[in-house]
Design a protein that fits this description.
By secondary structure, the chain is an alpha+beta fold. It has a single domain, classed as Cytochrome p450 (Orthogonal Bundle), CATH 1.10.630.10. It is 40% helix and 16% strand. The strands form four sheets. A three-stranded antiparallel beta sheet has the order 5-8-9. The chain has a two-stranded antiparallel sheet with strand order 1-4. A hairpin with a 5-residue loop joins β8 and β9. It starts with a helix and ends with a strand. Bound molecules: protoporphyrin IX containing FE. Belongs to the cytochrome P450 family. This is Cytochrome P450. It comes from Gryllus longicercus. It is found in: Endoplasmic reticulum membrane; Microsome membrane.
Length: 205
């Protein structure tokens, strides 16, 4: 359950929160959806169509940067390892913690790191960064085998939500990320949904 379910659930919740906080980004995702799908029809995307949603993918990656569900990754060091950058030796037997949270909020890698900015994941910006600057799915031989599926799942859910609803965050609400084996919002995600077609508003936060 840890690998496939809770991680994706946390990632979708944070992405919804960030979209609700940024109506301009929500609008851009809707415009992209309208360029791929027929607005008069319910949304039933194929895998190929999901692949066309490049901006939504940038939004998802930026949400995973700010709130990586697996915020710490443990590795056992089984041989003395010399770091090429500093010459430091990490001895055999050490347990190392790699923190995607810390890497993703390093201002030398991501200027103004607290800012939600999907443009960081445009093709040009991504090419300028080290491949290990983005680690929500870890890296190397034991990385996440479900990462492509996870991105598709997130795209499918978020596309359907945005197709049908405009999202607003509850005034004054701020999500508090906390460690519950995976990273979650410990005070939930409090948003209001407005049906795009009927304008029916769910006012219960
Ligand atoms: C946003 C969603 C997800 C995130 C952030 C995520 C993240 C990760 C991370 C960081 C690891 C490596 C853990 C470590 O090295 O200690 C991992 C491993 C793994 N993930 Fe995911 N994951 C996600 C979704 C999924 C899904 C949807 C599946 C299955 C369909 C999945 C299956 C696995 C499996 C089986 C492993 C263990 C791989 C191994 O040990 O060789 N994950 N995941």
């Amino acid at each position: 359950m840890f690998e496939g379910h809770d991680t994706t659930e946390a990632a979708i919740s944070f992405a919804i929160y960030l979209l609700a906080c940024h109506s301009d980004v929500q609008e851009k995702v809707l415009e992209e959806l309208k360029s791929v799908f027929d607005w008069s029809q319910p949304l039933q995307p194929t895998i190929q169509q999901l692949g066309e949603l490049k901006y939504l993918e940038m939004v998802i990656k930026e949400a995973l940067r700010l709130y990586p569900p697996v915020a710490a990754i443990l590795r056992d060091i089984t041989n003395d390892e010399r770091l090429p950058s500093t010459g430091h030796v990490i001895p055999d037997g050490t347990v190392m913690i790699v923190s995607p949270w810390a890497v993703h909020r390093n201002p030398e890698v991501y200027p103004d790191p607290e800012k939600f900015d999907p443009e960081r994941f445009s093709a040009g910006e991504t090419a300028r960064r080290h491949p290990y600057a983005f680690l929500p799915f870890s890296a190397g031989p034991r990385n996440c085998i479900g990462q492509r599926f996870a991105i598709l799942e997130m795209k499918s859910v978020l596309a359907k939500v945005i197709w049908n609803f405009e999202m607003f965050v509850e005034p004054g609400f701020t999500a508090l990320p906390g460690w519950k084996i995976i990273l979650k919002s410990i005070n939930g995600v409090r948003i209001r949904l407005e049906d795009r077609r009927t304008k029916y508003v769910n006012t219960g936060f």
